[in-house]
Amino acid sequence: MRGLALALAGVLSLAAPHGALAQAADKPLKVGVSAGPYGDILREAAKVSEKNGVKAEIIEFTDWNQPNAALQAGDIDLNNFQHKFYLANQVKARNYQLVALDESILVPAGIYSKAYARVADLPNGAKIAIPNDPTNAARALLLFQKAGLIKLKASAGLNASILDVEENPKKLQIVELDAAQLPRSLDDVGAAFVSSNYAYLAGLDLRKALAAETQVAELKPYFTLLFAARDDRKDDPRIKTFIAAYRSQQVKDFIIEKFNGTILPAW
Asked: Does the entry feature the keyword Ribosomal protein, yes or no (predicted)?
């Protein structure tokens, strides 16, 4: 009898992990994203993914630091809100074990103004606003340089910061703000660099921007977003199923019809 009990206990102990795995598989895949229109696209992808056997829950964050922190902590399974430079910067700065997966959308930013119709109209001493995180600050400075307002040191490249501005003929005041605050800053500054998700929410039209990243080929990696996962989860079949659903024709058509060129599919 004792031998039978031990045998049964062994069978149960072997069965328990499989039951736990099955239960985990029944839980929705948690996908993190910054607040705004990117979540709408993910929710459309979730419809396709569910048809293919993977339910997904879309979780929005208002702080750009949180989607990667949550991913590293295991609170979410996947995120989609950043370009490769932002991810690399956070991995290096915070020692995250996160990796880039497939590309998702193109989100070109622009320089917007409420007061001026052309870049040349910005007066001497005007304030211009850029994001306060390093990678997107560089992106903004490069676009302001392309627009002819400033000149950066040749060595700055894609790591440019305010310290790399070597020519500023109009003596523009460069103000660094949280990316989410940039559309609202247009009431107080001459011009601001605004990424497409916040531009869309604020009703800004990229076609009316003073300058746009689509005019600068070398900036394309900066406006190409990608999926990220923990390194130990990158081959998870559920993650692969969801990304395949995202990159489907149904989702591509949704993006094209909804965003009128402000956001574009990357595939």
From this structure: no
Q: Which two tokens stand for residue 42?
A: 């993910």
Q: Does residue 7 form part of some domain?
A: no
Which domain CATH number covers 32?
3.40.190.10
How many folded domains does the chain comprise? 2
Cβ neighbour number for residue 117 with a 10 Å cutoff: 9
Can you give the residue range of the structural domain that contains 150?
A: 110-194
> Which residues are CB-neighbours of 169 under 8 A, at least 6 positions away?
none
Q: What is the pLDDT of residues 180-219, one digit of tens each?
A: 999 999 999 999 999 888 898 899 999 899 999 987 777 8
Does 90 lie in the same domain as 38?
yes
Same domain, 104 and 233: yes
Q: Both 82 and 93 in a single domain? A: yes
Whole-angstrom Cα distance, residue 254 to residue 134?
32
DSSP assignment string, the chain: -HHHHHHHHHHHHHHHHHHHHHHHHHSPEEEEEESSHHHHHHHHHHHHHHHTT--EEEEEESSTTHHHHHHHHTS-SEEEEE-HHHHHHHHHHHT--EEEEEEEEE---EEE-SS-SSGGGPPTT-EEEEESSHHHHHHHHHHHHHTTS-EE-TTTGGG--GGGEEE-TT--EEEEE-GGGHHHHTTTSSEEEE-HHHHHHTT--GGGSSEEGGG-GGGGGGGEEEEEEEGGGTT-HHHHHHHHHHTSHHHHHHHHHHHTTSSEE--
Asked if the structure places residue 211 within a domain, the reply is: no
